[in-house]
Amino acid sequence: MKQLALAAAVVVVLAACGKPSGATDAGLQKLPELKAAPLGTERVWALDHPLVVERDRPPSNPGQLAYLFDAGYGSVSAAPGLTPAVFTVDGGAPSSSGGTPVLLARFVHLSDMQLADDESPSRLVGFDNLGDLSGAFRPQEAWGCQMLNAAARSINALHRTRPIEFVVSGGDNADNAQRNEVQWFDAVLDGAPQVECDSGDDDDLRPGQGNDPKDPFVPEGLAMPWKWVTGNHDVLNQGVFQLTADARASYVGNQAQFGTRRWAQGEAVPFTGTITADPRREALVRTALMDEVAGSGDGHGLKAPGATQDGKAFYPVETALGRVRLVVLDTSIAEGSAEGILLRDDVENRVRPMLEKAERDGVYVILVSHHSPQALTDGSNFGGMAQPGALTTTQWRDFLGQFPHVVLHLAGHSHEHHTRVARPSTGHAFFESESASIADWPQQPRLVEIFEEGAFLHLKLTPFDYAEDDDPLAAEARRRAALDSSTGWAGGNLKESGAVELWFPKVP
Ligand SMILES: [Ca+2]
Ligand SMILES: [Ca+2]
Ligand SMILES: [Ca+2]
Ligand SMILES: [Ca+2]
How many C-beta atoms surround the C-beta of residue 295 within 10 A? Predict the structure, then answer.
């Protein structure tokens, strides 16, 4: 009964506050600039409630969500800074090189935003579970644009302390390969005059401006360029299923078959049945995705010659001092499957020339892809089919081992911070590291700093929380993500803090 009353109230509000979609609202203001953004080595937000798997209380049910908040899930406190874990390629003690550190490059890795149009018929919320499909629904997913804006505010504050050259994505920028999701991602990071992350009905969940995630707002926008990396969620339905003609038609239709959200009926999900169609929900096949991103802002790396061939993003990113170069790889599989792939043809024709050039130039290389080498497959996992010419994890590591300037392969996808040393059977050892997501707790990008220090490169990867200062919507999103994590509904183990220092011997 209570829910019905609430739904009726929301419908009244909608009728009262309807306005043409895309209209600009006068008087909207950016949030104030942050005074400071602490790094994770100074302070982090920590969960107050231990992990207890609440199998019978799905946070997708507003009654259960309220119960879980009352039970203390979602409560967070500021905790002391993280102590970095130290890695060397030979497993020995870190070198006390004695050299004065010289900063070679400083950038941010921002991974797995999974910005979701939570009202789309493409949603598969009905499949949300405690296991492999935990990502089908998140109680914070409607707040994605506010979370991304909060991350941009923190990155800009760090930049004002010491310049950050660029932000590189970790992939899974959108959740569902949808045009409006990609456009929202671009608009928030590029600092559009206004963005409204709302589709179908123009919803106003709480009357008034700037007080709910479906309200328009003025994003801060990054103060530095950002670079695109493609993830499985950027090219597939829910990160798993191919965008068939039927799937593409359903995206812009009015039937929610597998569960979505219909705010007019309140927060409860999944809703199945007839919803308001929206052409801005167009599914983006990978060539259309490349065109959409390349056509926004400065093109986000995709205007480099040959960068978007075959709809796959492979390109280099230079750093200002010219001593370190990023090489972006596209490991997504448009034919289906959440896991990653590297095809021998792409490696030989697109990656090898970039690595050979880096070697000729004497430049250190950081590879960046959505999937880590550990997540490389032949494409035959759930939702996909075997692809000819796929490299195994071992073959990829052995390939990289031939290039002495390869220092690190940086990735996302796992939604957890993880670091390891890769020791190929031939060639040299290097590092692999995955950053956590923005979508799920701990919702942290990482600052990547590369120093030259005596006979070593010294890499510091440091997570940091997005700011919630003057931003109750970002704070609400954090508490929801905390609740999702500590009730077991987000999956994952979160064993590593993500603060690491990596020592790599310089190439003579
Ligand atoms: Ca979930
Ligand atoms: Ca809506
Ligand atoms: Ca709205
Ligand atoms: Ca509102």
Answer: 12
